[in-house]
Design goal:
This protein is of the alpha/beta class. It is about 45% helix and about 10% strand.
């Protein structure tokens, strides 16, 4: 019987969710020490907080700085790690120098994660940490995620997935723990804005980041700017359509996006949905991890 080092009995959650949280705490306690692949998003922040509560100084958060990630995400990760009080390191990685990644195949994420996990395992060894863990949650197993294959090959552990914690449940628990990321919109690397097979260039990725930053400045929280050559397809949740489709907003967006070099600026009437670039893969029966 493992003696748990931390208790969350005061949280206002039902028995089912309490059991999952208990399973997570139990798993982390058994691990003894961990390096957390930390993005600053909802899942990895929750995992980092619980890991730190359980293991304290035997936790290291590591964030990747890369051309395919937004600069503000690194800044956010730094601030949150500091507020939690956990040791935090930043490593640099340029996936675009890897030809297998830059060619943007359907299993692009696999090559990215291979590069990352190689570095994280080395860091874990240097810091004498027993495990490398990531923020993969239980819902992620239903999406097309080649990176999960790399995680399995490298022996990366996913405690949230093991505890069967879903995204919604992680948000509930994060709010209870007063984490600022409890309602943070889902984020993904900027390479996901381009159709598979479209070669990835740093200049084009930087343009997408600027385009999405512009939408954020208009008050749009959840957004994706999908690039199809000279045309961009803007995805936002349907409840944010009123903000996006105000005449003043539309004029500003068109002007800003054309200044970035896009000739055609469109809005996707289906609204935002995670992994919309994976539609072809899913419909062709390739949704395997």
């Amino acid at each position: 019987m493992i003696e748990l080092s931390v208790s969350y009995d005061a949280l206002d959650i039902d028995n089912s969710l309490s059991a999952k949280l208990h399973a997570l705490v139990s798993r982390l306690t058994a691990m003894g020490s961990v390096l957390v692949a930390y993005s600053g998003g909802t899942d990895s922040t929750f995992l980092l907080k619980v890991a730190f509560d359980v293991l304290n100084s035997k936790v290291l958060a590591v964030t990747t700085h890369s051309p395919i990630y937004k600069t503000k995400e690194l800044e956010c990760a730094r601030e949150i790690a500091n507020s939690i009080g956990v040791s935090h390191e930043v490593i640099y990685q340029n996936e675009l120098k890897n030809e297998k990644f830059a060619a943007n195949p359907a299993d692009r994420c696999y090559y990215c994660k291979k590069m990352l996990f190689t570095k994280l395992l080395l860091l874990a060894e240097q810091h004498n940490l027993a495990w490398v863990v990531d923020g993969t949650n239980y819902d992620d197993t239903t999406d097309y995620r080649p990176g999960l294959t790399a995680a399995t090959e490298f022996g990366i552990n996913s405690p949230l997935k093991e505890a069967k914690l879903t995204k919604d449940e992680i948000r509930i628990l994060s709010r209870q723990l007063q984490l600022p990321t409890w309602n943070k919109p889902a984020e993904a690397c900027l390479s996901t804005r381009f159709p598979y097979g479209t070669r990835l260039y740093e200049e084009n990725i930087a343009k997408v980041e600027k385009a999405e930053m512009f939408l954020e400045q208009l008050g749009i929280k959840q957004k994706r700017v999908r690039v199809h050559g000279e045309l961009v397809r803007i995805e936002v949740p349907k409840d944010e359509f009123p903000v996006l489709l105000k005449e003043s907003s539309m004029n500003k967006i068109v002007t800003a996006f054309k200044a970035l070099g896009y000739k055609y600026v469109t809005v996707d009437l289906e609204g935002y949905r995670m992994g919309s670039m994976n539609t072809f893969i899913k419909t062709n029966g390739q949704n395997k991890n």
